[in-house]
Write a structure and sequence with these properties.
By secondary structure, the chain is of the alpha+beta class. It has five helices and eight strands. The protein has one domain. The strands form two sheets. Strands 4-5-2-1-7-8 form a six-stranded mixed sheet, sandwiched between helices. The two termini are about 15 Å apart.
Length: about 170
């Protein structure tokens, strides 16, 4: 089932659906203050991918040069690994858990590094029609807006969330 969700997200990224094609790892350029969030849901399971400029998460985009910079980067990456449920919030009645499957910095050598976090979502009940809220700006003040793309078995929705204001429904 998760494989089908990932394939649906890939199809979305290939431009086969009527939403913006700037999705997943296909995003090359980034805009400071703006992150992307791709959500693929089928029934009560899914995959979520978050991507943001490293500068917005920990203050620089290159490889860390000092122990203090390494600590700052590592703390931000740890927050992404363990705090997924504070970043993407589901209705409590659904019994959802988010588990990080990959979190890391990409392309630090170019001086325009991004951070990408991928999560596996499992809920006790289907998500259809239930609101999904966000907490990125609270956790990472440098992230002012998030371009959210959602593809589920019941909906295909795009939304830009500014300062964590707004919800999306599968």
């Amino acid at each position: 089932m998760i494989h089908r969700v990932r394939r649906r997200i890939a199809l979305l990224g290939a431009g086969l659906c009527t939403v913006p094609s700037v999705l997943l790892s296909q995003t090359k350029a980034h805009v400071h203050g703006q992150a992307t969030l791709d959500i693929g849901i089928e029934g009560s399971a899914g995959t979520i991918e978050f991507r943001a400029p490293a500068d917005d998460l920990y203050g620089f985009e290159r490889a860390p040069k000092t122990a203090a910079e390494r600590a700052t980067r590592d703390a931000a990456l740890a927050r992404l690994r363990t705090g997924g449920a504070t970043l993407v919030r589901f209705d409590a009645s659904l019994g959802c858990t988010m588990t990080s499957s990959a979190v890391g910095a990409t392309d630090e050598k170019s001086g325009h590094g991004d951070v990408r976090a991928t999560y596996t979502l499992n809920c006790k009940k289907p998500l259809a029609g239930k609101p999904i809220a966000f907490g990125f700006s609270k956790a990472f003040p440098g992230v002012r807006s998030v371009k959210v793309q959602l593809l589920s078995d019941t909906a295909q929705v795009g939304l830009t969330v500014s300062n964590d204001q707004g919800v999306i429904r599968p």
